[in-house]
Write a structure and sequence with these properties.
Layout (H helix, E strand, L loop, with lengths): L20 H11 L9 H9 L3 H42 L4 H16 L3 E7 L8 E7 L4 H4 L2 E2 L4 H9 L3 E3 L12 H10 L3 E9 L2 E10 L7 H41 L4 H18 L4 H12 L2 E6 L10 H13 L3 E2 L3 E8 L2 E9 L5 H41 L5 H10 L8 E7 L5 H15 L2 E5 L2 E7 L3 H16 L4 E5 L8 H17 L6 E2 L6 H6 L5 H19 L3 H10 L4 H8 L3 H15 L6 H17 L3 E2 L5 E2 L1
Parallel strand pairs: 14-15
Antiparallel strand pairs: 1-2, 1-6, 2-3, 4-5, 5-6, 7-10, 8-9, 9-10, 11-13, 11-14, 12-13, 16-17
Helix pairs in contact: 1-3, 2-3, 3-4, 3-8, 4-8, 9-10, 9-12, 10-12, 14-15, 18-22, 19-20, 19-21, 20-21
């Protein structure tokens, strides 16, 4: 009996032209949100099978309908995501009290929502009242000249938005003749490197109070949906700005009322004592006193033993259940609460519990309770200042790390001075560690990295989704393992890290970072998650990944014809060759891995021979091909689609 003829490439026993077959395939593609290119596969398989023109026409119509459904679903998901982001923005802005904080949050959220290089906001000049708008806050800006721009009525895109109260957008500002170009504005925009700009008005009670911008450093045609999205954000922003201004006025009025009340009750002994304590605590804060000094001052005024607990995520919490219950009651009421043997007052800021002031050994009358509550307010202020200072220092460390890695030759002396203020010596030997922990919360991982950098005299930041640490030391492997262990303990999940070093001056940091990142990618591609490695630890792969090896060129020279053929035809020759080698040259085992018929494997390998030469199974040539396949997986991240073709 003659052997069966080789079948078509694809899923055996289920041709696309069978009843319901095409629809089922397209529904499965929709269900898993497959890329648009995969919708061509049923047509390709049907043509290979020799389907009739009528069958192909039906498949084409079904494909078009499926792609339309995919587009509608994608648009709905995008709109839902935008609405969710706007809702979160409104909630965030509603909880803010400080105007500068509100403005900063607005531009940061605008930049994130539209995915632009920069975002910025101008406000009306309320001092001169001449219709000018002045730059108030920016996000992603690097130019001092740009950050000091002033736009007159009708000048530039922003001046026109402020004058007409209409949104304007340009894909290329310098070639757009709709706007009144001025030397000062054009110089600032050129210095910032901006090309595409979108501006929408900030309106309050029918009056333009400023302009919100999103801009890119390359040409970009903003869509109508993006204009509408930024306009919606501007509406929320206007309300938040008005609320912040009202709160500032209310706060000033309350402070004035408190001062009047103090003068009216200055003859009361209890109030005098409270005022004395308040003055003492205020003086402590103004002189730069810390939490310990406030503890001592409250103990001196009220007597007894005072303890301050920082109840933030990384701080200590009261262990006594009675104290913890009293603290919850104080947080709810805003008052000092008896604990049994003493008193507890919660330190709150904006509804967020930051700490607690515990007093033991004395009883308090109502006036003394007010003193304890005032002390809790001061403690909250100090804890907020401490947190803000820590966040500011973390931003400084991250910005400095970016400068060291991106352009160390631009101002090396300035970089050294900035590092010195953070306790880092960039001329000393350092180890660069690039780590990731997919299961960890990004904020907690970043916080742990910043703490590690701060305590060791190094730098930390985030680049391309990975956490980057620059830590002093001459031994890369040892330093990286200690850092990864510390990060894993902080985020309670495994951490994968690549390391390189030591550095030899500012000019070598970027190369060490690139090598450490390649080591991390190699570990992930090899499935060695949770491990730490340098290029030395990766054996021959480390030799290829380190230095200036042209790995991509080698892969292209060895596998280029197969990769190009897969890209043009939508086939899986590279994946088939990899499965064949991984299966020890067994067609039967390879077809199980690929989930295709053995004849299909044979046909693909025959095509491989025609593309790269009939000697591809010779030992020396096979070794080169297996090495190239391994490197190809590393370069593309080792990810494959359903057909098995590697993709980045």
């Amino acid at each position: 009996m003659p052997p069966a003829a080789p079948g078509p490439i694809g899923r055996p026993g289920g041709p696309a032209g069978a009843p319901g077959g095409a629809e089922a395939q397209f529904l499965r593609l929709l269900l898993r949100d497959a890329p648009a290119v995969e919708y061509e596969r049923p047509l390709v398989e049907s043509r290979a099978r020799g389907a009739s023109p009528a069958e192909l026409a039906v498949l084409e119509d079904t494909k078009v309908l499926a792609l339309r459904v995919r587009t509608v679903l994608s648009d709905r998901r995008r709109r839902e995501s935008e609405l969710t982001a706007l809702f979160e923005t409104a909630n965030d802005l509603a909880g803010m009290r400080d105007l500068d904080q509100v403005l900063r949050a607005i531009v940061d959220r605008a930049r994130n929502l539209l995915g632009t290089d920069t975002a910025y906001l101008t406000l009306r000049d309320t001092v001169r009242e001449n219709g000018d708008t002045v730059m108030r806050v920016t996000s992603g800006s690097v130019s001092a000249r740009f950050q000091q721009l002033r736009l007159g009525p009708g000048e530039g895109l922003g001046g026109l938005v402020a004058q007409t109260a209409l949104p304007y957008v340009t894909a290329n500002y310098f070639t757009d003749t709709r706007f009144q170009h001025t030397a000062a504005i054009d110089a600032g925009v050129l210095d910032e490197g901006l090309v595409a700009i979108l501006g929408v008005p900030l309106q309050l009670n029918g009056r333009v109070i400023g302009v919100l911008f999103a801009a890119n450093r390359r040409e970009r045609p903003f869509s109508h949906a993006e204009v509408a999205l930024l306009g919606s954000l501007a509406t929320h922003a206007s309300i938040a700005i008005d609320s912040a201004n009202l709160i500032e006025g209310t706060r000033a009025a309350l402070e004035e009322l408190n001062a009047v009340n103090q003068r009216l009750t200055e003859h009361s002994g209890a109030v005098e004592r409270a005022a004395e304590a308040h003055d003492r605590l205020t003086d402590l804060v103004l002189r730069g006193g810390g939490v310990e000094e406030v503890e001592a001052a409250v103990s001196a005024v009220l007597g007894g033993a005072v303890t301050v607990h920082d109840t933030s995520a990384h701080g200590a919490r009261p262990a006594d259940p009675a104290v913890a219950e009293a603290l919850r009651a104080s947080q709810a009421s805003g008052r000092a609460v008896r604990t049994g043997s003493g008193w507890a007052a919660a330190a709150m800021a904006g509804g967020e519990p930051l700490g607690a002031v515990l007093l033991e050994g004395v009883d308090l009358d109502p006036a003394d309770q007010r003193i304890l509550e005032r002390a809790a307010m001061v403690i909250a202020l100090l804890l907020v200042m401490r947190r803000s200072a820590g966040e500011a220092e973390n931003r400084v460390r991250g910005d400095l790390l970016d400068a060291v890695l991106d352009d160390p030759a631009r101002d090396p002396d300035g970089l050294r001075r900035r590092a010195g203020r953070l306790g880092a010596d960039l001329d000393a030997e350092h180890v660069v560690v690039v780590a990731e922990a997919p299961g960890a919360r990004p904020g907690r991982l970043r916080s742990a990295a910043m703490h590690l950098a701060e305590t060791s005299g190094g730098l930390a930041g985030t680049r391309a989704g990975a956490t980057v640490l620059v830590l002093p030391g001459p031994r890369p492997a040892e330093t990286a393992r200690k850092a990864a262990a510390a990060l894993a303990a902080a985020v309670n999940t495994e951490v994968t890290a690549g390391a390189s070093g030591p550095t030899a001056g500012l000019a070598t940091f970027a190369a060490r970072f690139a090598e450490a990142r390649r080591c991390l990618r190699a570990l992930v591609a090899l499935g060695r998650t949770g491990e730490v490695a340098t290029s030395d630890d990766l054996g021959f792969l480390g030799l290829l990944l380190g230095g200036d090896r042209d790995v991509a060129g080698y892969v292209d020279a060895t596998l280029g014809p197969l990769v190009d053929y897969d890209a043009r035809r939508g086939t899986a020759l590279v994946q088939t060759l990899r499965a064949y080698f991984d299966s020890g040259g067994s067609l039967a085992r390879a077809k199980d891995v690929l989930h295709v018929h053995v004849n299909t494997v044979a046909q693909r390998l025959e095509r491989v021979g025609r593309l790269i030469g009939p000697d591809w199974q010779e030992p020396a040539r096979a070794l080169e091909l297996q090495l190239a396949l391994r490197l190809h997986a590393l370069l593309t991240g080792g990810v494959t689609d359903d057909e098995g073709a590697a993709r980045p």
